[in-house]
Write a structure and sequence with these properties.
Helices cover 38% and strands 15% of the residues. The chain contains 15 helices and 13 strands. It has an 8-stranded mixed sheet with strand order 3-2-1-4-5-6-7-8, sandwiched between helices. Strands 10-9-11-12-13 form a 5-stranded parallel sheet.
Length: 429
């Protein structure tokens, strides 16, 4: 397969052209022939104009690429090596929602041919590729796994907003259904990952490795969030404590905050789901998830109490939330915990405006039924800086004071202005 791809006798297809799929597709398109497939006609139109809807890649990234963008199933038949890179969200009950993944798998199954390869990049629980996806491929294609087609798993390691750790310079974990498949898949990925790949001994190992990467971070951030709750009661600055503790050589540097997005705030639920199927209650992981999921409400409730302590009536108070995306320097609003803060403040009767330099107004309205304000309007009793976009780092005390009422509160959830606010009532996690 590798030799046929390099000689451009065969093509590689990427299914799902979002934060993960598009960078992969463009990287491969600089080396081999690629078909970029997405079900969104709007997205395909933008990509054909060299525009990344996620605003992660600029137009120069599209230059020199041998790639065809399409949403037509017929075009996928030209490929022989398929990479599935679609989202794996959770449902309202915090259970894995495999619909996007299985739908994409059905799409591939419809065009699968003898000798083809399929590699999954979507984050899943250990066993999902072999237990859920492969049967769909066999059913839709009428082909037999390992005899007619090969399957692998290579977990994505794309970090939105991160220009330092990119596809090219982060070791890629790869796995295959057999040794032959593993080596072919590894060689294909080595075309675009200069630092090399790690050959996992099985698909399940690769799936498990991915799921614990974000689970580990989630649990560590949960510890920091719990510590911030304790230190707040003790009237101790959490940042001061972490700075002091950080002087020890082996102290792990994690910080409290809102944990959302489509990775850290979601992936652990895939692992706890699988654990529950095995009769195991993942106590540490579930506890960490509970702490992190509750932080938005905690922030809002704490700030409402501070408003009341200053003699301000919540039902007549005005608040401004600066930042709506799930993390800094991205446009992605999926699973942003900023909205937990928003809704909790609203439940106390507080009037709330939200602004964001990067978030898309239409997406925000569609996803959360919230209108993104054009900008600050009038005076606020409470200002919450929830996301540390670079553009906000230059804000100073004079800026915040100019739009704040007497005895107003500045809540700095990312500690962006630590040590810089001298007169305003300043609070951080």
């Amino acid at each position: 397969m590798y030799n046929h791809l390099v000689s451009k006798e065969k093509k590689l297809a990427v299914i799902g052209l979002g934060y993960v799929g598009l960078p992969i597709a463009l990287a491969f398109a600089k080396k081999i022939s690629v078909i970029g497939f997405d079900i969104s006609a709007k997205r395909i139109s933008q990509l054909n104009s060299s525009v990344d809807p996620s605003k992660e890649l600029d137009q120069t990234e599209f230059e020199g690429c041998d790639i065809t963008f399409t949403n037509k199933l017929e075009d996928l038949k030209e490929a022989n090596f398929y990479i599935v890179a679609v989202p794996t969200p959770i449902d309202t009950y915090k259970r894995p929602d495999l619909y996007p993944l299985l739908s994409a798998t059905e799409t591939v199954g419809k065009v699968l041919k003898k000798g083809d390869y399929v590699v999954f990049e979507s984050t899943v629980y250990p066993g999902c590729t072999e237990e859920d996806c492969i049967p769909v491929l066999e059913k839709k294609s009428g082909l037999k796994f390992k005899t007619d087609f090969m399957v692998g798993y290579s977990p994505e390691r794309i970090n939105p907003g991160d220009k330092e750790h990119t596809l090219n310079n982060v070791v890629k974990v790869v796995s295959g259904c057999c040794n032959e498949a593993l080596e072919e898949i590894a060689k294909v990925y080595e075309l675009v990952v200069s630092v090399g790949v790690h050959r996992a001994p099985s698909i399940k190992v690769a799936e498990a490795a991915k799921i614990i990467e974000n689970t580990q971070r989630d649990v560590n951030i949960a510890l920091m969030n719990e510590l911030s709750l304790i230190f707040d009661k003790l009237n101790i600055d959490t940042s001061d404590v972490l700075e002091a503790a950080g002087t020890k050589w082996n102290f792990l540097r994690f910080y409290p905050g809102l944990v959302g997005g489509h990775c850290i705030g979601v992936d652990p639920y895939y692992l706890t789901y699988k654990a529950s199927q095995l009769g195991i209650h993942a106590k540490v992981i579930n506890s960490g998830r509970e702490i992190n999921d509750d932080m938005g409400e905690h922030v809002a409730q704490t700030l409402v109490k501070k408003l009341v302590s200053k003699g301000k009536e919540p039902t007549t108070a005005r608040a401004l939330i600066i930042g709506a995306t799930f993390k800094e320097n991205v446009t992605d609003i999926r699973n942003s915990k900023v909205y937990d803060v928003y809704h909790e403040l609203k439940s106390f009767g507080v009037s709330v405006d939200i602004i964001d330099a990067l978030a898309d107004r239409e997406e925000l309205l569609k996803e959360y039924k919230i209108n993104l304000a054009e900008g600050p309007s009038g005076k606020y009793d409470l200002i919450i800086v929830a996301v540390s976009h670079d553009v906000y780092k230059s804000f100073d005390e004079a800026y915040f004071s100019s739009m704040m009422t007497n005895f107003g509160i500045l809540a700095d959830l990312k500690s962006l202005y630590r040590g810089k606010i001298k007169k305003l009532d300043y609070w951080s996690l």
